[in-house]
Design goal:
Chains A, B: This is Antibiotic biosynthesis monooxygenase. The structure is a homodimer. Chain A is α+β, with helices and mostly antiparallel strands. Chain A is 26% helix and 39% strand. In chain A, β2 and β3 form a beta hairpin.
């Protein structure tokens, strides 16, 4: 599996709009096992995104999906900064698709 | 919703054993919407844990569950360091329980 932990800073006052764009784009992405969008409670512009994918390739392929490309285009003007916190290798847990619940 | 992003450093050579303890303890925790355990690909001792819960209280209550208390006791000797990266407010995404897929 392939995982990402990232932080996205919305332009001032644009976090809600950016979250909507992010959530609109995440339905039915092949190979996506988990994609959680969260607000930072202390910083009103900060969004955390934690992801788990069947593979790096599945994640890369998702970037070509029309819905994702559209979300990226709609989201870009709302984003002040993006930061990758970590690339990870998910190994299991709760909230992953059944096939991935415990893989090395 | 209530979320956590954390890093755990296993004692040298103990990451696999610690991951097993973590995964053993996560089944059926009430209010747990997502709990993903991941390896850091660059650091052989580092584990990332990303969590989403229905509420802070649900997370706190989980710490009293027998299976979780046992996992904490078994895991403690294997842990060199723990660090909270962020407390978050998940607002939706994929891989969360149906009831939580899009909440404020």
């Amino acid at each position: 599996m392939y995982g990402l932990i990232g932080r996205m800073t919305a332009r001032s006052g644009q976090r809600e709009a950016l979250i909507k764009v992010l959530l609109d784009g995440v339905g039915g992405m092949p190979g996506c096992l988990s994609y959680v969008v969260a607000k930072d409670p202390a910083n009103p512009d900060l969004i955390w995104i934690t992801e788990a994918w069947e593979s790096r390739e599945a994640h890369r392929a998702s970037l070509a999906l029309p819905a994702v490309r559209e979300a990226i285009a709609r989201g870009r003007p709302l984003i002040a900064a993006m930061e990758s916190v970590a690339e990870t290798v998910p190994v299991g847990g709760q909230g992953l698709a059944a096939s991935a619940r415990s893989q090395g």
